[in-house]
Amino acid sequence: MVGIEQVWLIESGQSSRERKGSRKIMSDTGVYPTRKQKHYVEKLPNEHLVKAIFAVVPKSESIIDLGAGCGHFVKRLRVEGYRCGGVDGTPGITDLSGGTVHETDLTGKIIPEEWSWDWGLFSDVGEHVPREHEQQLIDNICRIPRKGLIISWGFPHERGYHHVNCRTQVYVACEFAKRGWWPDDELTTLARDASGFWPKHHIRLFVARRKEV
């Protein structure tokens, strides 16, 4: 985990190798097309990440999944008693998810006053969004929750489908810190220890808290 004193040592990193034809499958803003999301309707959420959420987010506080797909995490967390919502840019995702996820373009303009969530989950989304939309995406992510963010962003050269904008954790932490969200080392350790992630994901998961700047 990058320490606060290292956050400004920016290492922008390079995108991992694009898989052939990936930009043809994804939209210009990195959104999965409706026809592809249909294959994930019955997918189960990653329980490692669920355990990390349990460790740092009290059930008395709300959480929104930013880039929720078909709403797997939203449904799972609601079963556990959380007030949880989700947004995703896939056209028609509200109907496809049975109303669980609200269709919202996270690379577009969002009115902050419309949101009232304590925490945000932003996992495995940023690496799919083309670099030209990255700054607006991060701006929006930082405006939505009030207290905390659970963040995971694919590393440079990490293998994966449709990875067009992988970044180092130093770079990601820096971009969020510039907007008033600073890494919380204590909560990050708590989340990682609880998750039991395999090493690749374990080291790129971190928790940020809003601070006055």
How many beta-strand segments?
Answer: 7
Order of helices and strands: HHHEHEHEEHEHEHHE
**Percentage of residues in DSSP E strands:** 15-25%
What is the mean pLDDT? 80
Number of domains: 1
Task: Describe this protein's structure.
There is one protein chain. This protein has 213 residues and is of the alpha/beta class. The chain has a single domain (4-25, 44-210), classed as 3-Layer(aba) Sandwich (Rossmann fold). Helices cover 30% and strands 17% of the residues. It has nine helices and seven strands; from the N terminus they run αααβαβαββαβαβααβ. The protein has helices at residues 22-25, 34-37, 47-56, 72-79, 93-96, 134-143, 169-177, 185-195, 199-202; strands at residues 63-66, 84-88, 101-103, 117-123, 145-152, 181-183, 205-210. The protein has a seven-stranded mixed sheet, sandwiched between helices. Strand 4 (117-123), helix 6 (134-143) and strand 5 form a beta-alpha-beta unit. Helix 3 (47-56) runs antiparallel to helix 8. The protein starts with 21 loop residues before the first helix and ends with a strand. The model is unreliable at 1-25 and 35-39 (pLDDT under 50).
